[in-house]
Design brief:
This protein has helices spanning 31-46, 80-97, 113-120, 147-155, 157-166, 172-178, 190-202, 206-218, 224-239, 242-252; strands spanning 7-12, 15-20, 52-57, 61-63, 102-106, 109-111, 123-127, 131-133, 170-171, 183-185. Helix content is 46%, strand content 16%. It is of the alpha/beta class and 262 residues long. It has a six-stranded mixed sheet with strand order 1-2-3-5-7-10, sandwiched between helices. The protein has ten helices and ten strands. The protein folds into two domains: 7-202, 2-enoyl-CoA Hydratase, Chain A, domain 1; 206-252. The mean pLDDT is 97. The structure holds ligand LHQ. The site of ligand LHQ has 24 residues, from helix 2 and strand 6.
């Protein structure tokens, strides 16, 4: 894996923690940070020992989206479609297709692509002081990183359009009330709570959790009939797993299960 100071990667108790680390730029994305973050998610995909990912930011922000200094039209008209195709879309696809829980701890402002990456994670917690900004409207762009897909699905068209057209900041508490994120927590507790959650999930039945993620995401485009068939197929696989045998055995003998993720 490419070593880069723009994303700090540490592993403990089955959790790969990835910390966006360009704090003087509010963790805005340059190409190096994109490649480092992608390498982190690819590592999570590859290594069986990693059973959950925790994504957060260093300093006072989570992520301010694209580094606009790197895509300044006064230095030549940029092809932003190429930027999206090369960097943002592969990242979004990796997060969504990784069959392991991805926890996001939004430690401060999340703007532009930074907000929509947080909404693409499986469980997103935010510090009470954090805010989410669909900053695209302020600079003549359209929401990316899946925002035009996730926002209407999570909060409905009326709220999605208002946020995207006005770029009004949304406080963490309200984002939780609206169902954009899981929970807003006191700032000083954020990383502890997020880490505890990631550690608990990393000790869980990873195969079943991964298939649960896949099934819930598939519901966005499936009919009920197709979804019922998918549940049958996945349950058949889950029922053959070592973790199901362990879960039932632990339940029947009144002890704590020791899941291996298989
Ligand atoms: C930044 C940035 C930044 C560079 C703060 N870039 N320096 C995809 C494809 C290709 C191209 C385009 O975009 C995309 C997707 C996108 O993400 S588009 C949206 C891009 N992001 C934005 O438009 C957000 C821009 N930032 C802001 O509006 C503010 O910085 C927020 C509201 C995030 C925070 O405001 P403050 O707390 O007041 O902080 P600040 O503005 O003073 O920023 C602190 C420093 O960070 C400052 O640098 P300086 O040298 O003056 O201390 C900013 O210039 C720098 N910074 N965001 N995206």
């Amino acid at each position: 894996m490419q070593a880069s100071s723009t994303v700090l990667a540490t592993e403990a108790e089955g959790v790969l923690s990835l910390t966006l680390n360009r704090p003087d730029k509010l963790n805005a994305f340059n190409e190096e940070m994109h490649l480092a973050l992608r390498a982190g998610f690819e590592r999570a995909q590859r290594e069986d020992g990693i059973r959950a990912v925790l994504l957060t930011g260093a300093g006072r922000a989570f992520c301010a989206g694209q580094d606009l200094g790197d895509r300044d039209p006064s230095k030549g008209v940029p092809d932003l479609g190429h930027t999206i195709e090369t960097y943002y879309n592969p990242l979004l696809r990796l997060i969504r297709s990784l069959e392991k829980p991805v926890i996001c701890a939004v430690n401060g402002v999340a703007a532009g692509a930074g907000a929509n990456i947080a909404f693409a994670c499986d469980i997103t917690l935010a510090a009470r002081s954090a805010r989410f900004i669909q900053a695209f409207a302020k600079i003549g762009l359209v929401p990316d990183s899946g925002g035009t897909w996730s926002l209407p699905r999570l909060i409905g068209e009326a709220r999605a359009k208002a946020l995207a057209l006005t770029a009004e900041p949304l406080a963490a508490e309200k984002a939780a009330d609206w169902g954009l994120i899981w929970r807003a927590v006191d700032d000083e507790n954020l990383i502890g709570e997020a880490r505890a959650l990631a550690t608990t999930l990393a000790a869980g039945p990873t195969l079943g959790l991964g298939m649960t993620k896949r099934a819930i995401q598939a519901a966005a485009t499936n009919s009920l009939d197709a979804q019922l068939d998918l549940e049958r197929d996945l349950q058949r696989l889950a029922g053959r797993s070592a973790d199901y045998a362990e879960g039932v055995s632990a339940f029947l003998t009144k002890r704590k299960p020791e899941f291996k993720g298989k």
